[in-house]
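Model: Ready when you are.
Researcher: Fold this.
Model:
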Amino acid sequence: MPHHPSPRRRLALAALASLAVPLLHACALTSPRRDDIVDAASGRALTSAQLLAQARAADWVLLGEQHDNLHHHAQRGAFIAALGPGTVVVTEHLQRGRRVEPGRELQSRLQAAGFDPRAWGWPLHRALYEAVLDAGLPVLGGNAPVALVRQVAREGLAAAPPELRALLDAAPLSAAAQASLDRALEEGHCGHLAAARLPATRAAQRVRDAALALALQAAGGRPGVLVAGNEHVRRDYGVPVLLRHLRPQARLLVVAFGEPGWRADAGAHTHLWRTPGVARVDPCAAFGGAPAGAEATARRARPRNSA
């Protein structure tokens, strides 16, 4: 007897098939509407359907984002919904241990689970969560508590709970990976991160990665999907490092979401999904401008707003 997808699944597949259709939104586009999906190792172009088939064969699927790009959220929502039953979503937008409960109004449901609409620029993520929750998929929190992250950023890794410290101690970064993470943190602070603050800032980033990894492991699902910034999903210093320690044989698919002209660092992700860019204010303006050369280096290296 032929299998017929559920109405929700059909809607998700239709949405995924229509990724080339323009989205109406408040953000100004910086390029024509066109998505570009690439296998990072070979450089081969893929369709969304081909990537979806690979994702269904994975144990864990990690989807990055630039936090302020609405396209990234919309595309990921349609993609995750199309994965179908059995998929469990863990998000950095919610604290570990929280989950989105059934209800009627989307924003209220998210806020009841601890979502901070101001911090995350709501309604940027509306399309993501509408698609995932309408598909009936569970959404669980994965991030470390904000207060804990701030404490670690002040005091260092010693301030982290034993569970998170133990995982980080068991899966240390290589010297090259730590150097790459340090560069990313310095660029993320527009060259204004004091050298004395770097170790604790690095510890805070890794504590968040550890919380996300443990949440994804505990969530189960096939696949388990992580929704987080591009820096968190990097294979060299992000959550995948910890997942490989937790389950060495697990199959990971790691997708960075970028914009036209952006190239991911070699080996950092398995795939790159480029969408149109959005107009944004210079993020270094909040730091009083970047030191000479720092901003140009940062722009070449990675998208902003992706930690």
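Researcher: Now this one.
Model:
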Amino acid sequence: MGGPKLSAISRIPYWLVCLRGNGVQWIARLHEVYGSVVRFGPNDLSYTDSQAWKDICTTPKGRRENGKDALFHGPANSGAPQMIIDNDPEHHNLVRRQFAPAFSEKSLKAQEPLLQKYANLLVARGREAAVTATVVNMTKLFNFTTFDSMADMTFGESLHMLENNQYSEWVEGVLSFIRILPFIQLLKYYPILDKIFELIEPKSIAKMRLDNYNYTARRVDKRLEAGAGREEDVWNLVIRSGVVSKEEMYSNAELLMIAGTETTGLTYYLGMNRDKMKILTDEIRRTFSHSSEITLEALAKLENPEKFAPERWLRNPECDPEYADDNREAHQPFSVGPRNCVGLNLAWHEMRLLLAKVVYNFDIELQVGPDWREQNAYLTWDRKPLMCRLREVNDTAVASS
């Protein structure tokens, strides 16, 4: 297998690019040079072959599940691992089974009014910008929406960011903390450095790290003290089981809050590819005569509205032959196997709902260029502001289009 010579004996090249937020781009370039399997550290390999998903992430009968790298993920603040990195397969399965019903189709159908509430608040914010011809940062608006709705589902209470049109102090802290995660990872791989850092750790970093955990723990405690909530509430279902400890609730609440959906990038690519935007816009506005008709069930029946290049994915005579040989199995944004995303159903529904509501109600004009794609990643993407100009399209105009 190929890779930089230094990477065969040291992880330093990898850490340097990760600290700068360029790890994703660096590994992609290595694959261009060295092929489908790349060594980027003494014990680290990256694959682009779709078979790797099956070999690494799935567990055929009779084979033990591959473990998670405890150093890479680091210890949880509560002392209990999040469900996706729990190295005890049986315990992971037990905990996951308690959370999974909250993200079933039945549960999400019951929670649709909550999702609609925040989608409509997003549209209201967009209308304010459209009326005043103000250029609006869609990255912020989508973040407000996903954090508010996830907080309501997870804690039974919104963060009120859409209402206040600004980040809450806690979310600002979370987004800032994400940028130093590669540094914290690095320390865990080198115990001596970790011990030294414990002695000299700036109070600001310690506060940032603990504030995130303490805030989440307080919100979980408050929700538990409130007793029974909505029938399909996450904690109603988990509490009934009696098998998830409070520490595990804290850890997994942190996970649920930062694992929001990604609609910003999709909006950018649609805006940069006007022919694809027209396909989606025409279908949405032809299918629905009023914004209130846009529901989870109705959207699930549309022909792949969430994908910016439908010809890449649809297997029919109209497919662009350019994509006929694409290996679609290599694209697994929610992972595969027993550790795949427990909130997959929610993610798809939320992406479809938010995008459909925005496209139905507004014509979108990007105020950014191709360089918007050049973004840093610190375990998650550090998204740039996506500045857009919105022009409201009322129901009458939609009906006549």
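Researcher: Key takeaway?
Model: The chain is about 55% helix and 5% strand.
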